[in-house]
Amino acid sequence: MQPRAVILNEGKDSAIRTQFRGIPSTLLKFLLLFLVLGLGFSVLSIYMTRYFGAQSIISSLQPSFQNCFEEPNHLDHWISPPSNLMHTMTDEELFWRASLVPRRKGYPFRRVPKVALMFLAKGPLPLYPLWEEFLKGHEKLYSIYIHSLPSYQADFPPTSVFYQRQIPSKVAEWGMMSMCDAERRLLANALLDISNEWFVLLSESCIPLFNFKFIHNYFMRSHHSFVGAFDDPGPYGRGRYSDYMAPEVNVSQWRKGSQWFAASRKLAVYIVKDTKFYPKFKEFCKPHCYVDEHYFPTMLTIEAPHLLANRSITWVDWSRGGAHPATFGKADITEAFLERVAHSHTCTYNNRNSSVCFLFARKFAPSALDPLLSFAPKFLQSY
Questions:
Q1: Collapsing DSSP states into helix, strand and coil, what is residue 100?
Q2: What per-residue confidence (pLDDT) applies to 132?
Q3: What is the CA radius of gyration of the chain?
Q4: Where does the source fall among the domains of life (predicted)?
Q5: What is each CA distance from 359 to 206, 219, 260, 351, in whole angstroms?
Q6: Which of the following CATH numbers is that of domain 82-102+111-313: 3.10.620, 3.90.550, 1.10.3470, 2.60.120?
Q7: Per-residue pLDDT tens over the stretch 181-206
Q8: From CA 319, how far away is CA 333, in angstroms rounded?
Q9: pLDDT of residue 8 exceeding 50
Q10: How far is Cα 181 from Cα 172, in angstroms, rounded to an integer?
């Protein structure tokens, strides 16, 4: 008689054999094929590693997985300008991002400084063909930014340098803080391109007075930014000051100037990062204060007076009187007129006397485009 334990073991072996025989032959073949493929892949991996080197295999696979698991970490990723100017940042987020500056001097790459042309307009830019003529051949030396009414849909052709250069915008009203907000919004978006070194505020009625190369050199060699900031003791200057501006601003610091400026990168950052003076101007400089004439000139006179030339580089004619400057149409455009605007003035440039004081002019009506284009080969030629 066999021991009980042996009988039990034999019973288990019999059950196992019965279960094994119950497995379909198709499944057994599949398991065998899977085992063979696994062993083959392992042998092939060992061979490739020895023959090609582990680093080569990793490098060949890296591009496929890099975008899935990590951001590109090469320098170009951080210094390239945004490929699309439209974004969803709030003004607060945008100004914070734009006010970040390098903490060390110099750039660890070849940087070609550009001029950012910032157009503050309600809608279309009727003089844009003249600007395209002005910019032709200098594609790597400028950037364009357009702030228009949010409801306006631009229709520049794809071949135009103005195509898709609109930034996220809001309604801007003359004499209101929303006008300064629009100007800061233009500056902030332009600051996101680290190659932009100078920032010029223009309107849809502005024209250039010299060729691009001359204007680019004029900016790059300047020791000062071109912001008008003067002390006007009369009713349209200090008369607009409110005692509630103190202690941030006292009446002796109150300044007035044209809103059309050209600022270096350093000064542009001052404007965008300001949170000290902005609340006071927004609350206490309301019509008939006209904040766009006082906020930047006053704030920059206090914060960075050594950086200011205390003059604008955009010519305008106030001689006809009224609340707005003169507008020039087709009949006004002559060679003598353009020569007079460009050369019949004196000023200082880098603390020396100069006869070139204005690089741009306004206000020009759409009807002025054809005669301006006809004179362009001459007044936009090399200076």
A1: coil
A2: 97
A3: 34
A4: Eukaryota
A5: 10, 10, 12, 18
A6: 3.90.550
A7: 999 999 999 999 999 999 999 999 99
A8: 17
A9: no
A10: 8
